[in-house]
Structure formats: C-alpha cells, structure tokens
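Suppose you are handed only these lines of text.
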Amino acid sequence: MKRVLITGGCGFIGSNFIRHTLKHYPDYRLINLDKLTYAGNPGNLTDVENNPRYRFVKGDICDNDLVGKIFAEEQIDTVIHFAAESHVDRSITGPAEFVQTNIMGTFNLLEAAREAWLKDATGKASGTGCRFLHVSTDEVYGSLGQTGAFQETTSYDPRSPYSASKASSDHLVSAYFHTYGLPVLITNCSNNYGPYQFPEKLIPLIVNNALGGRSLPVYGDGKNVRDWLYVIDHCEAILTVLQNGIVGETYNIGGNSEKQNIEIVHTICDILDEKVGLLPDGKNRRTLITYVKDRAGHDRRYAIDATKIRTQLGWKPKVNFADGMRRTVEWYLNNKVWIASVTDGSYREYYEKMYGKK
Ligand code: NAD
Ligand code: DAU
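From them, the structure of the protein bound to DAU can be written out as follows.
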C-alpha cells in the first residue's frame, strides 16, 4: 500500500485526483491536507469521505509541526503537492499569500520529506521508493509568440506573481534533488478544465454567467491562447509520472489543444443555447460577450510540447476538446447547487461549523 500525502486535495484538480485514484488504484491510501481557503471545498469529496483509504486533515502546509506529525503518524512515502494559491488575477491584487503558500509552503513540505526520508544520513538510498511529486504549471516558462511550444529545457521566464511563485517553488524542489538527493519529480501542465473548478476561472465563470444571462467578460482582444487539457487526463499523467518517471526529472503535460479565449467563450455559449434554449429575450448567448480591460502582464500564448512524457512514459490525453467541453458544461448544468453554494459562501459557513474557523 502506498501512503500518499495529497496537499490541496479539496481544490479543483486535487479533488478530481483523489476521486479518480481511490476508484482506480486500490493500493493507494490518501491523506488529504488542505487549509480550506476560499478555493478548497471538502464538499467536492463527500462521496469518498467514508472510504477507509481516505483521510482528511484540515491544516496549512506552512505548519511544520502538523506536517511533521502527518509524516510520522501515517508513515508517508509519497507526496503529491497540489496546494497553492492558483489564480493569476488574485496574485496581481494580493501577491503576499502566493509567496507564503506557494514558496514557503513548498519549502516546508520539502523539509518535512527530507527529515522523514533522509534523516538517517545514509543519503540517497534511504529515500528509495519514496517520491515527492510537485504539481506545477506551464506559466513558469512565460509567454510564446505565434509559433513554438514549451519544452522541459525552455528557460523559465515567469511574468505574474503567481507564475513567479510557482517558478520559485520548482527551483526549490529541483535543488532538494541535487543537494540532498530527495527523490523528486516535477510536472508542468497547461490549463485544465472539467468538473469542480472554482467559478473565478475562465470556463466555469463563463458557464455560470451565461446561464444567469449576465455579461461574459473577455480580457483584451480575446485572442490570448491557452492549451486546454481535461482534468482527468492531467490526473492520469501525474500517476504515470509518479509510477514511471525518472527521479529528478521534469515532465511537461499538455492537451495539444490550443484555443483562443474567444473560441472557448463561443463554444460555451453555443452548447448552452443548444441545451437550455436561447435567452428569455430570444437572443443567443454570444450577445452577452463584453470586452473588458486586459489583465496586467497578460501572457499571450501558451503551448506545451508533451513529446517527452508521450515517448518516454507512454502517456497521451484520452479526452478530445469537443467531448471534454460538452461533458464539462453538462456537469455544471447538472450541478447548479454546487455552483450556487461555492459562489454564495454557504459551503464555507457549513464547513466552518464542521472544522472550525482556523
Ligand atoms: P485550486 O485553487 O482549485 O485549489 C488549491 C487548493 O489548495 C485548495 O483546496 C486550497 O484550499 C488549498 N490550499 C491553498 N493554500 C493552502 C495551504 N497553505 N495549505 C494547505 N492547503 C492550501 O487549484 P487547482 O486549480 O486545483 O491547482 C492545483 C495545483 O495545480 C496548483 O499547484 C496549480 O499551480 C497547479 N496547476 C493548475 C492548473 C490549472 O489549470 N488549474 C494547471 C497547471 C498546474
Ligand atoms: O496554464 C496553467 C494555468 O492555467 C494554471 O497554472 C493556473 O493555476 C490556472 O488558473 C490557469 O491560468 P490562466 O490565467 O490561464 O487561467 P484563467 O482561467 O484565469 O484565464 C484563462 C484565460 O482567459 C486567460 O487568458 C485570461 C482569460 N480570461 C479569464 C477570466 C477569468 C478572460 O478573458 N476573462 C475572464 O473573466
């Protein structure tokens, strides 16, 4: 049985990862450490909360005592580190939290893993079998022109406080491999979409506003490009790297599915018009599109070259963009109560009662 510490498991990707892994990997025990920030919702995992291979701990990755205690109590041999402040716009208005969680939090976890796995001073050998997998982003590589794609060897060039904090954490993880022999793996993934994404991010925000007949804010000229990947494909890529990746290496993960933002917004409007009918005034949802002031330092284009993980580890995405988008929009349509609860804060009230305010 692998004994895995998942950080940030109540967020978008972490909760999808936990559900998927409990279902398909019976030899994994998962301990989910999550601070329950505005983005963390244990309600994303109510269907698995009684699974004997799952445990939830409310807490901060920056809390050394708590993290050390979990490593000892649970004999953790694997870390999959999702926890982060993840929204670029929030990093522009309030970068401090990003530095604290993304950099200091990662540092704290690395120290806990070093203490637990390498403390007997026999060096690299004592960590054999253990893995620290750091989940990172393609944004560390900066912004592309009209051609080309990020490779694992592309120089780092982060442009937002969010991507700079992730880049910094990547460097720390890599340093712990070279300096201490900590058995680390790093993944840099492109934009994910799918169920349970907090409706501050483009796709769920547009679905939510388009359903409610509200304006659809498109930054700048709407022609910025992102490379979209269905979230379960990302989860499978992480599991592939965990099981077969070479320690100390980085793997880029992407959907090979570049879209301009405006194309995404059009796709969502058209799916909703078809599924729920036109707006009450008889207009289609594209009429709700409103071009707004651009994001500061807005990266123009991201694209991932996923050749390494495909050729060396045999992973490739299974869900194509058209199917993934239909599935995703349908999920939000069938889970309007979830959207309402995460946007009106009622889930926070409930979970504060359950787990306390701290
Ligand atoms: P998210 O914002 O949905 O979830 C983050 C989770 O981390 C939340 O549950 C939150 O409560 C928790 N958290 C935040 N600070 C914490 C702390 N100090 N201690 C413990 N828990 C804390 O994020 P996401 O979109 O699921 O992203 C997960 C990871 O994947 C992040 O590291 C992000 O950088 C990376 N990533 C995301 C994408 C994407 O498209 N969403 C793409 C590539 C990489
Ligand atoms: O590339 C991976 C990254 O993808 C992850 O590391 C981040 O955690 C994740 O948030 C995401 O970052 P983006 O900034 O690309 O995602 P977001 O959904 O915020 O925006 C996607 C694009 O849509 C971006 O070009 C900005 C634009 N946008 C976004 C919002 C919220 C709009 O035009 N209007 C909006 O209202």
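What can we learn from it? The chain has a mean pLDDT of 95. The chain is about 45% helix and 15% strand.
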